[in-house]
TrEMBL record:
Protein name per UniProt: precorrin-2 dehydrogenase
E.C. no: 1.3.1.76
Taxonomic path: Bacteria, Bacillati, Bacillota, Bacilli, Bacillales
InterPro entries membership: Met8-like (IPR028161), NAD(P)-bd_dom_sf (IPR036291), SirC_C (IPR042518), Sirohaem_synthase_central (IPR028281), Sirohaem_synthase_N (IPR006367)
GO biological process, one term: siroheme biosynthetic process
Keyword tRNA processing: no
Pathway: Porphyrin-containing compound metabolism; siroheme biosynthesis; sirohydrochlorin from precorrin-2: step 1/1
Record keywords, A-Z: NAD, Oxidoreductase, Porphyrin biosynthesis
Claim: Zinc is one of the keywords in the record: no
Catalytic activity: precorrin-2 + NAD(+) = sirohydrochlorin + NADH + 2 H(+)
Siroheme synthase central domain location: 123-149
Enzyme class: oxidoreductase
Length: 231
């Protein structure tokens, strides 16, 4: 196995303290990415911040700490991002975080710290991360563009429909044995994931403005249609 291989992981950051040191454009992008991932306890430590970061602070989405970094700033943090323009300071921050067992990333050097942030494509519940392990960020950016073109906003609707279908099946009142019901549910979910026309029709209902959410009746009709080829 090549040295330095990465283990892909998705983190649930709600309720976790995330600290960004630095207030420039890179820190701004990191804060936006954390917010998009559901983080709700973000601190930005910097003497100066961009206008957009300041607006996030005013809106209460991040907490701006207007001063230089201090080692105590990362105590009790779950995740740290060193995003200053000073590579030496970034290395120090990452080293201190590592010594405390805190996940840390440096924007100066991807080989420093305990994690890297991939290029990300988000379509609702669909999250695709791309990394080249530092070999070529440019290629990662190119692949992101290609994936964005291949997986459009319709996939957000598709995942909403599939989630509702899954919840509907898992909470249905069943009279068969648990084993039989589990097998049937698995087959239906697999069929639904491949049923392009089915979820496309559901998406069209939303796009045409007939309703803002997919109601249980539509989901039940989809289930009936999925069952027909197998009856």
């Amino acid at each position: 196995m090549p040295e330095g291989m990465l283990y892909p992981i998705m983190l649930r950051l709600k309720g976790k303290r995330c600290v960004i040191i630095g207030g420039g454009k890179v820190a701004e992008r990191k804060a936006a990415a954390l917010l998009a991932a559901g983080a709700d306890q973000i601190e930005v430590i910097a003497e100066q911040v961009t206008d957009d970061l300041a607006r996030l602070g005013q809106a209460g989405l991040v907490r701006i700490v207007d001063r230089q970094y201090d080692s105590d700033d990362i105590l009790r943090a779950s995740l740290v991002i060193a995003a200053t323009s000073n590579s030496t300071l970034n290395a120090r921050i990452v080293s201190e975080a590592d010594s405390l067992g805190i996940w840390a990333n440096s924007v100066s050097d991807g080989d420093e710290g305990s994690f890297v942030t991939p290029a990300v494509v988000r379509r609702g519940d669909l999250v695709i991360g791309i990394t080249t392990n530092g070999a070529s960020p440019s290629l990662a950016a190119r692949l992101k563009v290609e994936l964005e073109q291949s997986y459009g906003d319709e996939y957000a609707v598709r995942l909403r429909a599939l989630r509702l279908l899954r919840d509907r099946l898992l909470h249905a009142n069943n009279t068969r044995s648990p084993e039989a019901e589990q097998a049937d549910t698995k087959q239906l979910l697999q069929a639904a994931a491949a049923d392009d026309s089915g979820w496309h029709e559901l998406a069209q209902v939303l796009q045409d403005g007939f309703q803002t959410e997919l109601n249980p009746m539509l989901i039940d009709r989809w289930i009936e249609r999925l069952r027909k080829p197998r009856t």
